[in-house]
Amino acid sequence: MKRLQTLALEQKEDARHGDATFPIQKYITSLKPDYPVITTHWHEEAEFTLITEGDASYQIDLTSYAVEKDDLIFIPPLLLHSVSRGQSTLYQSETYVFHMNFLGGNATDICSTRYLMPLTNEELSVPCLIRPTHPAYVSLRKIFAQISSLFANPVEGYELAIKALLLQVIFLLLQNRTPDGKRSVDTANASEKLKTVLDYIHLHYAEPLTVAGLAAQCYFSEYYFMRFFKKHMNMTVVEYLNNLRLEKAVELFEQGNTSILEVSLATGFHNLSYFHKVFKRKFHMTPREFLKKLSSF
């Protein structure tokens, strides 16, 4: 059954990017008025992205970046990140998601211990946004084009070439990292607090959740927690929780569950009328209309 386009809200991605022997995957991302955002998430892999159309706002490790066509983005492993469509009608990007172990991140040589592992463990900071005016841009753009070409035309040995090219990306970024090369303590602490509460929501979304209970996960007051969450997630905690629950409801519908009441209860909506209201607000159709559309595919 064809999946309708919806927001991916799993904040710590469990998806495998590529396979165990070649852990790299290409993705094309499109953001439109009816699909305007990829919410905050993180994963063990790094990302190398080219903006191919439009403009957007990236938030990476709690820092905001305005990006536009031809900009390059590099996101190291484990960093929180999200993308929101800008003023353009269509935003599109091409991304390569890869595990650092593919480059030798789990080895014991000097390349791993001095560079790859510290980058993986958030002990080194490298530039995330590389604009055309950046000193490494021309070289990185050429590398991106080579990776893209190899994915489109996988000649014999292309895996070796891609591995070498990604190592070159790391080398060029390290030449342009900040002087101290480390994240601030405040950023690291805030990021860990946010990951803690997102993990908790992800595990308990089907249960009754309160702002007070979520604030307690971070040892924050309710007032401070609501401000903290809105600042870093660009939405309230209630909006985030509703979106996550709605995504889970869509998954259940797509898996063949046709009882609207059962799906509502299974995803934490204990008021059926409210479930109908927020579902229609998000997807511009009722749950029953959604089921009917699914059955037509």
TrEMBL record:
As given in the record, the signal peptide range reads none
HTH araC/xylS-type domain span = 195-293
The protein's matches in PANTHER family, at most eight in alphabetical order, are given as: ARAC-FAMILY TRANSCRIPTIONAL REGULATOR, HTH-TYPE TRANSCRIPTIONAL ACTIVATOR RHAS
Species annotation = Roseburia faecis
Annotated keywords: DNA-binding, Transcription, Transcription regulation
- From the record, give the transmembrane residue ranges: none
Tell me what this protein is called.
Two-component response regulator
Q: Which InterPro entries match?
A: AraC-bd, Homeodomain-like_sf, HTH-like, HTH_AraC, RmlC-like_jellyroll, Tscrpt_reg_AraC-type_HTH
Q: What are this entry's molecular-function GO terms?
A: DNA-binding transcription factor activity; sequence-specific DNA binding
